[in-house]
Every structure is written in C-alpha cells, then in structure tokens.
Amino acid sequence: MNRLASEPSPYLQQHAGNPVDWHPWGHAAFAIAKDQNKPVLLSIGYAACHWCHVMEHESFAVAETAAVMNENFVCVKVDREERPDVDSFYQLAIQATGRTGGWPLTVFLLPDTRVFFVGTYFPPSDKFGLPAFPRLLRSLSEAWAQRKDDILAHAAEFSEAMNARTAGKRVQSAYIFSAGQDESTAFLRSATATILKRVDAVHGGFGNAPKFPNLMALEVLAMAGVQGDESAKTALLHAVDSLVNGGIYDQLGGGLHRYSTDAAWLVPHFEKMLYDNATWLRLLALVHTNFAHHGCEAAIRETVSWLAREMRHTSGAFFSSQDADSDGHEGKFFVWSPEHIDAALAARDAGPISAALENGASPSRLTAVERLAFATAAFGVVRGGNFEGGPSSVLTRALSSAELATRFFPGDAAGVADAEAERETLRAVLFSARQHRVAPPIDDKLLASWNGLAMGALARCGHALGDSSMVNLAKQCADCILLLLCSEDTRGRLVNRFFRDGHVRGPGFLDDYAFVADGLLDVYRATGEDRFLTEAHQIASSLWARFHDGDEAESLVLRSSEARDGESIPALRESADPMLPSANAVAARVFRRIGALVDEAFLARAETTLVHLRDRAVKEALFHAQTVVELTRVFAGPPSVLVLVGDSAHDAFAALLAAANESPFDAFEMVRWSGNGDCAAAVAAASKPKGERPRAYLCRGTHCLPPSEDAASLRDALAAPV
Q: In what order do the strands lie in the sheet with 74-79?
C-alpha cells in the first residue's frame, strides 16, 4: 500500500500513484522492516529534480520493478527539502565511497537505519557504467538472504566512516574580536588566493562541467575586490557576465537555473530553486552597489519579476522551486528553434510587434527577414540547435549590443542603442509567446529557510536600486513567514520548517532559524520597523538555546537539528556551503548583528560559532566561502552602527536617511531612533530633547563619532577611514 497520498510534500505526492508500497520517513517503516526482517530501500529527492523524475518513470512507475521492491524491501521516500537532516546524513555515506553524491539518492539500510549500500540514479538497464536497477535489487536481496555477514560488514564500514565525519570538536575561544583590520585583511587575502586558484579564466566561475555558480565564493571575491584586489574583482565580474549572458540564466523570464551541464554555462539543468535565486539576487545587489556593473540592474529586475510573477504565494512568501520538465520533456518550456522564433514574430506582426509597441517600444527598423536574423543572432539560436542534438537552442545573450549594431546597423551612430532596444522588444515578444507553452510545475511549499534568504535578498536589492516595491516584497514575505511558520514553545521562539495547504511541518532546522533571523535583520535595516528587530532577536536567542550544546566559552559548530524523539539520525555540525550558505556562518552573522544592535553578549557567540573553522576556511575556501566572509568580518571587529535620532517626519531626518542609504548595505547596521523601542546602540542618543534637529550618530567599534546634523557632514563621516 502506497502511503504518500496524505503527505503535504509535493515531491512525496508525485510518487503517491506509484505501484511501490512507499512509506514516509518515520518509526513505522523501520518497525515493519524489523518485524519482517527486510532491508530498507531509502530514496531521497526533491520535486524539481530532473533525474528523480527519470528514475520514477523508468523504475518506480513500472509494475514489474515495483513488485521486486515491494517483495524484498520496505521502501521509504524522503523529500530532502522537508528533511534535510536525513538527506545530509545519508549523503555522508556516498561521500565515504569517494563520490560527491546528489539526487536521487538511493540508499539500502538495515532495519536499524545503518547503511550497507548507496548510490544515486540507477537506470532500468545496464548503461552509463551503472547496473540496471532491477538487477541491483535482486543482487542485494540475494545477499541479504544468503550473505548476511557481508551485509553487516559493509554496514560496519559505512558506520565507521560516517561517524568520523559527524564528530564535533570543542576548543577554547580565543576572543578574536580584538584581532583588528590587519588580521581581517590578511585572512581574506589568504582565502581569496585559494579560491582564485580554482577560477575558470576562459568561461568564468569555477571548475569544469557539471558547473555550479557557487555564488558564496563569488561573494568572497566581491569582498576582496572592494578591498582593492584587482584579480578578485576581474574574476568576479567575468563570472557575473558569464552567468548573466549564458544559458544558465533565463534570458526571457529572468532567474537562474540550478547548474550548467557544460563548462561554458550554455546548457543548464532547467530547474530554478528559490535558494539559488535569492543568493543570486544578494550577489547582484552587492556587485551593483560596489562596482556599478552594467548588467546587474536588469538581472535584478528580471529575477525579482520572475519571483513575483511565478513563485509568490498569495500571502506574500515564495514557493520552493520550478521544475526542469514540462509537457514530459526537460527544458521544453525554455528552448527555441528558428522556426519557433519566426512563428512568434509572425503572430505579433499586427503592429509591427503590436504587443511590444503597446508597452512603449519603438517601431523596428528591420524588415521581417532581418528581424528574424537579428533575433537568432541576439539570442544564440543556431540551425541544428545546441540542446540535446535536436533542432532547438538554449537562449543566451550571444552577442553584445555593439556587435549586433555592427552587424545590423553598420555606420549608424545610434546603432548600439537601437540594437539594445531591438533586443528588448524581441525579448518581450518571445516571452509573451512562451506564456502559451505548458509551464513547468511549481513546488508550492513555503520553506522557512529559503524564504529567509529571499526576504533578505529583496531588502538588499530594494536598497541597491532605491526601489521601494522590492522592499515591500521583502516585508510581505517576512510577515507571511512570521504568521505561518513562527510560534512559541517551552524553549522560546519556534520556527517551523514549511507550510503547504494549511499544513505546518516542524520543527525547523538550524538553517530555518539562522536564515529567517538574518532576513528579518535585513528587512529591519531596509524599513526601520522595530518589530522585525524584535523578532530577529527572539529567534537568535532561541537558536542559541536549541542548537548550541556547550559552555558559552567553548567553540563548537552548531548542530544542524534538534533531537527528535526516537530517531537515531545524529545531528550534524556542518560548515560547508556548496549549495546553500553555511547555516553556521549565517548564524554567526546574526549573532554579530544582534550583538551590535541589542545585546553585546551575542558578539562572543558569533566568535564561538566560527573560531575553530579558520584553518579549514582558508584551505577549503571554495566550499566554506560564507564562513570566510563572516570570519573576515569577525576579525575586523564589531559592526558599525548608525543611529538616526529625531522626528522621522522632519526634512532633515529624510536627508540624513537618504545620505545613509547611499552607502553599501553592509557598511553599518542602522537604527531609526524616535525615543521609542529598546536598542543598546541608541542609549547615548535617548536623552536628546524631543523636537531637536535630527542627528546621525556613527558608532564604530567601541566609540561613537560626533553627531552629524546634515547630509554633507554625514557623508564625510561615512567616507572617513575606519
């Protein structure tokens, strides 16, 4: 009997119609395995995973294969987004074999949850150097019946290897906040040098195919670039250009696909994940603010438009992912042939291109034939295609506006502007035509952690572009997560994992608490609304109580999960960030910010969380990039705080706020102080008489500078060396 139909996870529901007797993760499945003396077949994936869909269609939906599974195994299906603790633990098993892991993850377990065999995707027949899944099932079933000692020996080997990877280490904190800017700069320089060794100088980014953006490592390069490292800046801007112009970026609808199957960022796996795009927006805001990069603003606006248009719940939070497949084929929604483009242009030629003209675009200067040639050149569409050997192409920004102008508007002084306008008009036309295709499915659960990333990214983008609509999206997302997923229990503020169709699943994990608290601090920074700071403080306090289990003077990486009754999955202490930012690093950022704004005791907690990761962060900087970022900041000392004091309706207050907002988002924490609320950084300003002209107090480290009463003096104070 398949037991997944009542599960709230969209991924589990995708398998509810399989002839496999699926169980959700839990005590019941392992009790049955013990009673029936059967091994457990654990399959882990997620709703937008292309190869998860392939394995389902090829194996789990096939009656003959399902019969073998049901007869010989107790079958358990897990959504890795619902239970990241289960996924992370069993990924250790495949890492112990020297492989990198991924999804679908296929694990064979003893009834006591220990691993004895592990793999990822298995095909229905022998290919790709992999055994056929039915043959594998029969082989393992035979071994279980006839060679149990071999099975137990394998389980013991896996347990030893996995236990070695889960061991924590306590060290005495050295209180490194006193290290100073020189130590911070030296640490960042060392980590940056490690990362630069892995840069792909030809295509941008890091490594070879399959190729992930590794946006956290790019943030390290941005931080180094701000400090004057030209090599880091060059590598960063090359990577951003490559991503914005490549097939990994949706050239029509906005948003970043999960990864590229090739080194040149041309052909992606087409799923779009909320966490990737939130981290992408955060990076774009950083690059736009600090380097005035020409492509960032458009990419920000397009990606935010995609989130608001296709990924937003009516309550204001954002869905988890958009699938790679539509109408039964991967990428079908996104790829184009010249014939597709010709048909789209012909359908819009009542104007010419009437829909675009309605939006204020200028009439095309090109003939219909020239316009088709322009479109295929502008978006990299080639005869014979570039996708899976078929006639269709993944769209790229193949030629620059200058190159298009040379080809289509030779000798015209306005050619570059005309080429850019023509490309934007055609983009609107193709996007409109694409809306008539079968869209990829959406995993519509609301994950706390990923929405924490999204609200923070939107607040930062709104600040970077001076766009209040983006800040409002961030604020509405925060309100939704606080309403639907945050409550109280006996240990303080509780953050649950996800919400879908009226169902709340919890408790949350370390990343839920850390990412939501950090996002709330970003929303507070952008809006000045005290309630977001209050919530962030409460969540940070609860995070420390739930996930730290040592003396406050001891350094031990925070546990990724709380203990769950009766479960034997150990809580991991993870510091790497190959996909998501490290939850430990983000927790340290939250502690550092709360320490500056509310409670100084949290400053030591930031250090306690990170101090013993220093050597690993430098040696493995590419995969500990968020830890590098936060250690760099911790070494530099407590954050600066800018306190604006006075009547917020006063013109001078507005001028001071505008001047403050000219600085990068992370240059300081900011408090708007009107005599209400509770903020330690504003104590010195609280005694100012009501009605006095607004002032700005800039506090750096342990001292505050003289107050600024006008925008010009505040700009001077902010520009002065630290």
A: 22-24, 74-79, 40-45, 105-109, 115-119
